[in-house]
Amino acid sequence: MRRALVAGNWKMNGSRSDIGELISSLVAELGDGVNGVDIVVCPPFPYLNQVADAAHGSELVLGAQNLSEYSSGAYTGEVSASMLQDFRVRYVIVGHSERRSLFAESNQQAASKFVAAREAGLTPILCVGETGEQRSAGQALQVVADQIDFVVGVAGIAAMAEAVIAYEPVWAIGSGESATSQQAQEMHAHIRGLLAAHDEDVAAAVQILYGGSVSAANAEELFACPDIDGGLVGGASLDAQSFIRICKSVS
Q1: What DSSP string runs through 113-167?
Q2: Which of 96, 98, 130, 188 is catalytic?
Q3: What Gene3D superfamilies does the record point to (predicted)?
Q4: Is 96 a catalytic residue?
């Protein structure tokens, strides 16, 4: 049976003081673990060491929001997988819609970053999802299929067994408008079916998260769907009590 996973993506938010208060609250409430749930926090790069130290010895796991597809070299401003390993990072978000839309990351670049993460022993959280225009045009299933198939084509289906997929409808992120549980379950089942066409065992085992205005109010209904294994939480993960409620609701 698949374990649940909740990952908090703090995005470009916080200060040393804010981050200290947030991680202290999370360690106090979630540090001993939540039954059946893996909990990941993904702070901005400058605070990785602070969060790693504060979470050390707890059940909270450290993640990063991005990585370079290159291992080293003249790539000013980039962060490699090996650098993330120095801070005990275990998960890394790849292909987030904000990286795709704001920084023009392509399916090819997302796939290259996925491979870089896997080669370093990190677990990529591969983000896929459609825009509002694509959903309105009836293209949602095909858009997500193209994103999944591209990574599988580059990395191979076996690599997906050591990865997490996050479905994030782009039109829901930060809008306060979540996909309905029916819409989310339909897409999650579609993703699992895409993987099953290559390898049924991998499809059955991979954790597929929902991301898109997840909140304490809608988490329980979303997480009750059979193919939704947890959430990639944005804004609500910056509020300790909301994130704690979300983590406990999935258990």
Answers
A1: HHHHHHHTT-EEEEEE---HHHHHTT-HHHHHHHHHHHHHHHH-HHHHTT-EEEE
A2: 96
A3: Aldolase class I
A4: yes
